Amino acid sequence: MIRRQQPKQSMVRCRPPPPIRHPAPHWWNRSGKAEIMTEASTLTTSFRPTPASFPKRIAKRILPETILRLVRQKTEPSRQRITIVSFYTEGGYYEQKANELRARCDALGMRHDIQPITFAEGTSWSEICRAKVRFYRKMLLKHRSTVMWVDVDTKLLRNIDNLASKSYDIAVFMRGFRFLPQENFSLYTRRFHPGYLILNYTRETLELLYECKRIEQQTKGDYTDDYILEEAFRRTTARPRLMIMSPNDVSRPQDPENPGAYFLHGDSGNVKEFKGKVLQHTPDILRPESQKVVIQELISDAARLGKRTLVCEYLHAILARDPEDFGSYHRLLEISAKFSDPSVLATNLELYRNNEHLFPYAMRFRLLQALEKQDWPLADELFSQIESTGNEAVISFSRSRLFRASLDRRAGERGLTQAERVKLFWWEQPYPGNLGDIVNPYIVEKVTGIPPQWAGRGIGLCAIGSVIKYARDGSHVWGSGTPNSRDTLAAGAHYHAVRGPLTRDLIIENGGQCPEIYGDPAWLLPILYPRKLHPTHKTGLILHFTHEAMTTPVSPDVKRIDIRRLGYSEIEAFLDEMHDCERIISSSLHGVIIAQAYGIPACLATVTSSSTQIHGDGIKFDDYYQSIGYQHAPKEVDLSQFLIIDDDVIHPDGFLLARKPIDLTALLEAAPFAVTAGVSAAAQEWMQNWPDRAI
């Protein structure tokens, strides 16, 4: 018996991909085989396309080629195509060009929608140009697919369907058909040529076109379609993805032969006639911010040569171009103060008295000088003048500096030396102050009995807050933590205690040493300012300053507690408002920390709809919760999801207490300063009575 030999099946050896690696993208070569798109490697050289499935191999053997072609035509995705759109006025040159454009589209097998349009007698050329924008928006909505506007006197040289792609929203030529990397477009009033626009039917494209509609409704004067387009691109928040077409894609009659071009440009000549008569943009190079960059280079050169007078002249030039540039004005005043002749500063302080934007900064500069000289009566008088300006930015900054100076003022009244005071760093922004930062000097003064002295980053003690990254070799850290798990921490800093075990782990990873003493010093508040009130509200709400613009409505029954505070009286007012609540919802970590220190259940929240968010990668939340007995922080409750925030919006299980207290005795013993006996005794008593004393 002769055994029939089975036909051999072709076998392709493929290296199996790693189990968790995503498959690499592929493209199809001219032979129809898939090839991998990766950097050159042994994997790319050994790649073989995946064999066809078994049913496909059988079909190829038994079905005629004509049937297979029909099946392929029905199953292959249809090719993306472009519809040419344009309009013309009937009679004469433009109707002739429209007929030529239609015929050319038909000859090239291209879709087109070229329509006649009527304008009232006397309609200006600029008004006709503006109608283009309305027309191609109408065409895009009509066809709901890719369209291309071309001026009707354009000649198509070849089919442009292969320019169609879903990888962009809008395709444009640069102004004058220039090549983007080889031109300085800051010299020109416009960036893009308005006569050739490929518009994909996407949300971003439609948003840009509706921005065009708003601009046309709002703009007064005489202007054209290219003004509308330029203004829309400058204003839009949609930020459409652009494809910049090459100058090689278009030919002009005067250009040498270009066999690869898609378009032969036609030019009616009206642009030059009307240029200067219609509304124009200012070239980027003449905009104040562009001129400022150039002048600042001149300032740097003059400063290196020690030419202060010239530097001042350049700064005046900046202010002439931007009368609201308070940063340049402050620099002008700083340099003016270095002249031996005091009249230079006096002149520049008075020069902009009538400028409502700059003069408040002149008074702010005088306030800083008074505080540096510790001329307290003059500082008080200047602050009264600053308040009368109504400039909130200057008022808030001045309040912050006056608070810092108030510590020096009280220390001077008590005859304390700098050596007796703790040098302390705290973050002062957002001005005038944020409770989680401004509580630093309050706690240190209550614990030591001596007003601390503000000191800069790397010099002052890093205590409350996520400021440990500012410590340098030789700096002292007590209770601070990290906001980012990848921060580099100074190995040579003195770490007395930190917020939680994750911060300690990061210190050790960076080569530092740190004892296992954990706790945010804000936990000391219950012994420094004991709870006095019985709550009258069930729920209190504290929002981090980055979440202040939350749009979710809040029930009147929920007590809103502002996190922005400055000064000891405002800190204690914040604590009183918190004590007036049975429980706290907070997107600020220190709202949670302080509530739990007082034995008030707290729910950690967030506001994902906010345009600004808390910095960091979230390690600070896990860091803190591990210090009070949890393995990790609870999942934040997103306040954006609710229709209204009321007493019942969050389940009671979402409000947590500490599972174990911060060891206040160990925290105080680790402090790099002397603690008063009364505070030490209060801490020991509090620890003995926890949790009853906390509640």
Automatic annotation (TrEMBL):
It comes from the Bacteria. Keywords: Transferase. Pfam families: PS_pyruv_trans. One of its GO terms (molecular function) is transferase activity. Residues 1-23 are annotated as: Disordered. InterPro entries: Polysacch_pyruvyl_Trfase (IPR007345). Residues 485-603 form the Polysaccharide pyruvyl transferase domain. This is Polysaccharide pyruvyl transferase family protein.
